[in-house]
Amino acid sequence: MADVEEEAVVGEEEGLEEEEALGEEEQHGEEEEKEEEEEEKDPDMPLNEEVIAESLSLLCKTGDGLAHAYVRLDVHERDISCLNSLTHLLTLKADNNKLISAKLDELPYLQVASFSNNRIKTTEGINHPLLEQLCLNFNELTLVDGLDPNKLSRLHTLELRGNKLTSTAGICLPNLKNLFMAANQITKLEGLDQLEHLATLHLRDNQLENLDGFSENMKNLQYINLRGNNITDMKQIKKLMVLPLLRAVALSDNPIADEDDYRMEVLIALRRIERLDKDEYTDEERQEAQDTYETRRQEELAAAAVEQPEEVAGSENEVVVEDES
User: Fold this and answer.
1) Does Repeat count among this protein's keywords (predicted)?
2) Going edge to edge, which strands form the sheet with 223-225?
3) pTM of the model
4) Residue 55 phi/psi, 5° resolution?
5) What is the pLDDT of residues 116-139, one digit of tens each?
6) Contacts of 208 (CB under 8 A, 6+ apart)
7) CB 190 within 8 A of CB 165
8) Exposed (0-12), middle (13-18) or buried (19+): which is 237, by Cβ within 10 Å?
9) Angle, alpha carbons 126-127-130 (nearest 5°)
10) Please, are residues 243 and 234 in contact by the beta-carbon 8 Å criterion?
């Protein structure tokens, strides 16, 4: 009898375990379905007065000095279409949303605006007269258009990393000082000659093969990051000679960086630069580059001198033939 009772108890326990296991599986399955539904559902979380009140900070005097207003707004995962009424904003951070445009009515005091990690496809509608810093990193931009230099005359820093840009065209902002365009698909340098005040240019991890597009009008450019492109010919580096204040260049992770004497050849081409990649040039390197440059220049002059008499002799023979005829 005892054995039968034990078997019955064991059987009941096994049945309970099976039921619990089935229950857990069903619960787990329901949870997964809920998660999938939540992922598929696009939550609509528009801004309201309560959310805006929680997101505003930094109380300052208004532009006319007659009142006070909160001037910083930091919102995430929200629809920001109702921000046009916040005319006293100085700083707007709208990162990590689902925006397809950064277009807003003119905000007369806005100085810093960040729209990173959205789905923005156009730069039109950004016309804030005091704007100094604009960040549009990691969006879906394929071109830059609609940036009015007259309305963005104070913009000094523009960040466009991680988009789908294939060209630098469309950035007609003469007062711009810092331009960040890394991790795009850029193959052409266009419109850079209009950036006469540009000091820093980041073009890392693009698809550049040549450096056509730099201009002597870019008389303030001091640093260029070209790391991780497809530059294979050292002759392309000589195209940077038109930049009078260029002091530092990053060229690692390009095919030319694997060439023998890469570091010395860059210095021979650009004798004014002070740093290549992360290392500054030493006085010894600088002297060696100067000596090599002078030696090559003398060799070129000597070769030209040898070719010139042959050309003169050839032209004289042509004249004699003409006289005889």
Assistant:
1) yes
2) 56-61, 68-74, 91-93, 112-114, 133-135, 157-159, 178-180, 200-202, 223-225, 248-250, 275-276, 279-280
3) 0.75
4) -95, -15
5) 999 999 999 999 999 999 999 999
6) 186, 187, 189, 226, 229, 230, 231
7) no
8) buried
9) 120
10) no
